[in-house]
Amino acid sequence: MEKEYQNDRKAAVKKLKLLAYNGKNDVETFRKKMDAAFSTVFLPNGVERSDYKYGNISCEVLSPEIYASNRVMLYLHGGSFVGGSLAAYRSFCASLATKCFCRVIVPDFRLAPDSPYPAANEDIQSVFRALYTEEQIACSLNAEKGTAAAQSEIIIAADGSAAPLACSLIFNLRERYRANIKKVILFSPWLDISTTSPLLTSKKLNDEIFTPEVFKKCSTIYTYESNTQNPLVSPLYASKEDLVNFPPLIIQMGEKEVLLDNAREFAKKVSEAGNECQLDVWPEMMFMFQMADEYLHESHLALDRIGKLITGGASLQRQKFENKPKLERGLNSEA
Known about the structure:
The chain is of the alpha/beta class. Helix content is 38%, strand content 17%. The protein has helices at 2-16, 27-38, 86-100, 119-144, 163-171, 175-178, 198-201, 212-222, 240-243, 260-272, 297-311; strands spanning 48-54, 57-63, 66-68, 71-76, 103-107, 153-159, 181-187, 249-254, 277-282, 321-323. A hairpin with a 2-residue loop joins strand 1 (48-54) and strand 2. The longest helix is centred in the middle third of the chain and has 26 residues, at 119-144. The relative contact order is 0.15.
């Protein structure tokens, strides 16, 4: 039995290493390998996929069979700043949609090296503004119809190199926008890619997925050296003022990640600024173990936990749900 588990773990690590760009191959080859490893033809649990543009940015809308009509998740995919795609993250985000009983919006934002910092940040801000406006309009229309309209619940989620995008979005939001973000979820976040970070300066990292070369290469491609301590690039450098009224934060990651120390430090800063923060660390797990569900049973359990944290374990009868969304809020591919 032990041998079988180790074989599964080895397979998981082999797959997850495709999320880390080490520069040995060109960017296009990296992207193709990542897509090939993580793409799937069929979505789990009857989730439906639709194309839509928010803020003129192409997005996918992943909708489970049952979802809370006032809850939506904006998911920002990782990929070492240079990779990741709608296809590669479709299955993972569909599982999130099912576990959290919500629609999941996945934007196809610009990537380095063709579009380095701050291109992706600008795209995400455009998507959020459009999504926020649409959700507010929907709540207003429900109120006019005499429906007991629940307040819109927007969840921001991101993994790996997209964590700085999620944090920078929040740092730049005014309070009235922040108030509508009910949760921020960061999976295995990159929080410090500065030139003084141990992730870049160490000769060797005790990590199954990453080497120092990955962070050095990706940092250089993404932005210029003097910008790496910018909180919009390395959120660990955020000031207390940046973190005031930060939405409730959940960080989920593996115990074996070299990124864990940064996550602990960031969680401490968020908490000291007076915010709710939960660090969910899984024993013996590696970077983004949640995306190796065919090899690791913990992957399923981890997403189950995220779903419970989002729904609060509330009775389904006390929430407004819809069956098979018809995207009636003015959604179309040209908006």
